[in-house]
Amino acid sequence: MDYSILPYYVLFICLFILAQSLSMWGQYVTLPYKNLSMWEAYKMAIPFAWLDWVVMTFTVMVGHKYNLVTPTQDTFLLIIIQFCLILIINQFYLKQTVTRSDILAFFIILFGFFVSFLHLISNIFNISIPEHPGTPNPDDASATLKTLKYRSLHTNLKKKDSAKTKKVTDNVK
Fold it and tell me: What are the distances in angstroms from CA 123 to CA 77, 90, 117?
């Protein structure tokens, strides 16, 4: 393992936890207040959403710049952190008990993350793992086949139009 990238993982995880903490707190902050109007609830929650957006922007930037996780792993991480935060908020803020099934669900989600992160199924069944970070165009890493065909067609049409324009301008000279 390349240990020089470890500080970026720590930064990424800390920013991710901070962003999701802001998001989850904004979603739950109004729950104890039964007589809030929609506008009052909005005024209480929206600053948390804005802060989450700002912090999450930096989080995604760090993750993509240093190729720390794939988009699927981003989603798993989001689910895991939000699940943990919901359990904490339920236990301490809303005074609800955490059950065994909640803990079991957490470990099932955590197992799914490790299967994805370590490519367990791909390694066991000897399935090739695509190299996303090395693609020349980062948009191609998560593009669908339909999108790639469209881009190819669009690029070829541009080249043909450019060739026609050059031919016409050459004939004019």
Answer: 21, 38, 11
